[in-house]
Amino acid sequence: MADEGGNLIVALDFPGAADAMALAQQLDPATVRLKVGKQLFTAAGPDLVRSLQDLGFEIFLDLKFHDIPNTVAQAVRSAAELGVWMVNVHASGGARMMQAAREALSDCTHQPLLIAVTVLTSMTREDLAELNWEAEPLDRVCELATLAQQSGMDGVVCSAAEASVLKRHHGGEFLMVTPGIRQASDAVGDQRRVATPSDAIAAGATHIVVGRSITASPNPAETVLDILASMSPPAVS
Q1: Is 167 among the residues known to form the active site?
Q2: Does a structural domain hold residue 133?
Q3: Per residue in 70-81, pLDDT tens?
Q4: Does some domain include residue 236?
Q5: Which range marks the domain in which residue 23 is found?
Q6: Whole-number Å distance between alpha carbons of 101 and 120
Q7: Across the chain, where does the E strand assignment appear?
Q8: Which domain CATH number covers 131?
Q9: Domains held by the chain: number
């Protein structure tokens, strides 16, 4: 995986395998990784993940496991056996759940990166208040990120708006994967805490997840190159 493309993840938010494979075949595994989420995985399952890996892509399996510790541990272990590059759990599942997930990977031949979701990027303070979490999203994200790091996670999923704060508190080795990424000309959609690719990287994101900007583009490969260019620091004259 080339260094310049390793932090761009394309979200394959499709209803089935055919559309996902058609998009993947237009992209270069040397410049991007792919994310398979709940909709696509439910429709197409592990066979699609294997097919994408056969094309050379590293896969972020975005299933956000959140259950009793043993169930999550076994699910994470199954993800490792599938050979994915990264898998995630919900930090709000608590320390015991996250620690069980980490321990489940300890004797796996292949150990994917294990990250924790903090607060979904679609959520606002009003959404948190409905759950009796009387806090700004940033405060809740910071709490959950600290718990995730203490529980052995490799990083977290957060919005770009929180990445700069987390970078100061958790260091450069702690991954910050940021969804809700839109190009400046794109519609926000159902996300609330969004950012452009360049803003996310400047804020400290280690990886950005881009979906509709690429998947709905008439030329996905060209859009990828444009995004990669926008993520690079300007040349020094």
Answers
A1: no
A2: yes
A3: 999 999 999 999
A4: no
A5: 8-230
A6: 20
A7: 8-11, 33-37, 59-65, 86-90, 113-117, 155-157, 175-178, 207-210
A8: 3.20.20.70
A9: 1
